[in-house]
Amino acid sequence: MFKSTALAAALLSLSALAQASDVATILKKADAFRQTDSSAQIETLVQTYKNGEPDKEKRYEVLIRPGGKSLILFRSPGEVGQKVLMSGDDFWMLLPGSARPMRITPLQKLLGDASTGDIATMTWSGDYDGNIKSESSCDGQACLELELTATRKTLSYQRVVLHVAKQDYRPLHADLYAASGRKLKQARYFIEQRDGRPTVTRISLRDEVQTARETVVTTLSSKPRQFGDELFNAMYLSRNDVKL
């Protein structure tokens, strides 16, 4: 009896490890559709819509590099010179003329439902653990539903229910939850060919409460670039302009 129980426990443990490995692989492949280069300069347009009609728009230049580092440069009139720096779990807002960077959260809004974390953070692998919850049909294709849990309390969303295509693990849509368990919004991912490979070029964000409002984040261009360490140092950025 003891041997049977031990064997069953061991098999369950191996099954859990195998699924964890599967989820890690799925997330890495899903990430590859969103971030095609590990170090890149990305031109981003954020637009808001009310009842399907265009409302506002803003432009950003996003610099990303390995190690969880991103720099958002504001490019819209009246905001030029503003910056948001993400370094690991730390976010800073830097304003022109201010000698000190201000700490902010990744949920700090930029425009509509697009927060700093939505623009600066482009990966799930490494930030989330999870399991494959079910297999179903999404938009006429077979998909997997993944239940993801944040590995750190500082992440924008503590729980993510992510749907990916079963065939190639491209992200389809995700429900994004706060630490309280409240659903904040849903993200839908739209893919087109860029440089000969399928890439997420547009993300639609819909507020869970204000359902008539939509925020669309569009990647206008993305090119691989290498950046110096100083561009990801808050004190350097507070004293110097960024020249690309």
TrEMBL record:
Pfam family, one: LolA_like
Residue stretches making up the Uncharacterized protein TP-0789 domain: 69-239
Signal peptide as annotated in the record: 1-20
Keywords assigned by UniProt, alphabetized: Lipoprotein, Signal
Gene3D superfamilies per the UniProt record, alphabetical: Lipoprotein localisation LolA/LolB/LppX
CDD domains: LolA_like (cd16329)
Keyword Signal: yes
Coiled-coil segments on the chain, per record: none
Protein name: Outer membrane lipoprotein-sorting protein
